[in-house]
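To: structure desk
From: M.T.
Subject: fold request, one chain
Message: Could you run this one when you get a chance? Sequence is below, nothing fancy, just the single chain.
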Amino acid sequence: MLDLFNKTSQVQGRISAWLASNNLPHRPLGFDYQGVETLQIKPEDWPSIAVALYVNGFNYLRCQCGYDVYPGGPLASVYYLTKVDDNVDQPEEVCIKIFVPRENPKIPSIFWVWKTADYQERETYDMLGIVYESHPNLKRILMPESWLGWPLRKDYITPDFYELQDAY
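Reply: Done. Structure tokens follow.
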């Protein structure tokens, strides 16, 4: 599994400094091209950090998605959180990345913190097979229930027996 916690740390931003001051384990990954601070969180630490971020004002889950890091490698779940407040022209944002092994990809669901995670976690489950533990309705949302495998994994092979039926 991709373990970035033991490598040299990146530049620490404001949110990373706040998490560190509260003894919340994370690893800063720097900033994206828009200046959004990116942090890596371990799956087991995610529920407590999610609640801490919510209490600190990150009241909106703007986006949750997942991706296959590389063939045979770990899977990633990504969360973009935003502080939505009155009279703010430039809301504060943070990007959280959680890496899990593809053999047993489990992450605690944050549906109980941000309800907008409902369909987004289901879609990531449907496409990549990341299991969001304690999600109230984790089942396929885009693919038929009978679909085999996880279509967005880089090692996915399309089964021969699926056909387009009544597609027109």
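Reply (cont.): The radius of gyration is 17 Å. Let me know if you need anything else for the meeting.
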